[in-house]
């Protein structure tokens, strides 16, 4: 499992050794080694500087790299740099770490709107890394290329667009699979059937994340499941509709990115949540929810394995291999199903 933590004074020697590794020196902006005295002076100032955050990247409890965020001349923009020690690249660790790092810095520096990375032109690996993690090229000079990541574009605006999209659909279609933008009621219920196989749900505390108008809850009632159910959604209209349909059930309007979950559930189920999102949203969402489940989390995604279908360019479509690369850093207890629909797959992540 990949985690990040704030660097401590005891990390001074470790980071000193890392900074002088040939590969890391070659990829750095200065391309120079540092003396122990230079490093000690810098590190002591940096960990006490409110405008600098140094994070240690850990993989299964072992330190494998560093992320550094630094505010320069304004409170709404900061720079980021990241490296992994030799032998830890190409495992998906960096992508998970940068996602967690951005989420951390957003909470620490609430005014931050944009995160910049300045990369030397010849550093092809770093350029590819930031491009894969949704940093956009913004400027360049003879020596370097500048990339920028907009936090608001990747979370707040995305949630706003989805909220408006689904609020509108439920007003138009009401109690219909079309409110959730499913292709048919049959395909919707087929996904519910697969998600229900996650484990023994009898008397379990279940969170239906992205519950819409309560269709999964209705499916559970029809199948005579005895569960402790809670549904949450960002759509005001969806929650209003679901609450009217099932007044005895618990439905909550909630954005977990601004208002985190304050309780744990046995199972957390997500169906159709990620259709109009992106990689950053997906990883941040699954990472947060996995921490709030006692037994398992189950979700579905549109699949790249079926390439003959016409798709909406706005849809978030992933290959199962890429999703598993991310998921195995949360847990190795994983089940993947790709046998029920050509354009869809389901993943179960267990504690």
Structure description:
This protein has 351 residues and is an alpha/beta fold. The chain contains 11 helices and 15 strands. The protein has helices spanning 12-19, 22-27, 36-46, 93-108, 124-132, 151-173, 185-195, 215-222, 236-245, 279-291, 320-327, and strands at 2-6, 52-59, 62-71, 77-84, 114-120, 136-140, 144-150, 205-209, 228-233, 250-253, 265-270, 293-303, 317-318, 334-337, 344-350. Strands 8, 9, 10, 11, 12, 13, 14 and 15 form an 8-stranded mixed beta sheet that branches. Strands 1-2-3-4-5-7-6 form a 7-stranded mixed beta sheet. A hairpin with a 2-residue loop joins strand 2 (52-59) and strand 3 (62-71). The mean pLDDT is 90.
Outline the secondary-structure elements.
Blueprint: E1 2-6, H1 12-19, H2 22-27, H3 36-46, E2 52-59, E3 62-71, E4 77-84, H4 93-108, E5 114-120, H5 124-132, E6 136-140, E7 144-150, H6 151-173, H7 185-195, E8 205-209, H8 215-222, E9 228-233, H9 236-245, E10 250-253, E11 265-270, H10 279-291, E12 293-303, E13 317-318, H11 320-327, E14 334-337, E15 344-350
Parallel strand pairs: 4-5, 8-9, 8-11, 9-10, 11-12, 12-13
Antiparallel strand pairs: 1-2, 2-3, 3-4, 5-7, 6-7, 12-15, 14-15
